Amino acid sequence: MNTHHGFSEADLHTLRAHGIALFAGRVIFAAQPPMAEDAIAAVQAHCAGPLPPALLALWRQTAGGRLDYNLSLEVATREGPRIEAVSWCELFHDGSSFYRDLQGWIEHEEEQAWEAAEDAGEEWNGKLACLPIGGFEYCDRIYAVTSPGAPDDGGMLAWKMGLPPAWAPALTEDVVTTFAPSLPAAFACLALHDDPLALGGDYGAGSELLAHLDTCRANGLPAPLADALWAFYLRARIDWRGLLQAGTLAAHPYALRLALCHAVEHDDAALLRRIHASGARMDGLVAGGANALQHARFLNRASAVAALEILV
Questions:
Q1: Domain spans of the chain?
Q2: Is the model's pTM score more than 0.90?
Q3: Of 21, 57, 111, 113, which has the fewest CB atoms closer than 10 Å, so is most exposed?
Q4: DSSP label at residue 250
Q5: Is the pLDDT of residue 238 over 90?
């Protein structure tokens, strides 16, 4: 379940001593101790079906912690498909100092299920079909599906809260989507849209992990191991520039979206023409419900608009 890619057991032990764990090719920091078996059994008692084996493997390594990646998903809304960023920065755990701990979110879901059943004139069976395991405050949540016989049993589901209608064209309705067939596949969806060191001090994916590593270095984490951990973390970066250079960008929709967004947001008409010359489609969704031209118009990027009006 874990992909360490060259880290020795001694390295993993040292990283663990500094609150860092590796799971399914991704970095967890502020990692908690393993979840006790009786605590796992208590969570299992709330669920309609067995906990996914990969979730058990995660919890037996660490009860939870922090993640610092981008997660961009296509979701369905009443108005059509959209590309939405989902914040998955915490793996819930009991005693979490953030918005709610694991047990708090379980209780929240149970209250919601009781109310929904009551509104429908039904009686709830007291078991959760979807277990909340992570997310960000009250806005975004990630669930493990534990519903025997369901097509997505064992899969991972994302929920995002919509904003009030006045915030359009932002998402203005709650959305939910099953985005991965398993927890490792969900971790594989966690990506870096750029090199965090290229942000120039701006807050973004990677900034929290960088701060954690600075603290770890000050507390004795060997510099070569910290550097190796950072290199491992950067393997999640989507290198759209490299794909464009290699002439294969058109075959990678996620990377293409990032390239088009970058070109639009930087009002880079030359880059847009280069992307078009590579054979890539220019009319797909890139942000929310907008394609590149609509996104450029919304941001008032004149050069990008002029180029895209010809290219799209």
A1: 32-189, 240-311
A2: yes
A3: 111
A4: G
A5: yes
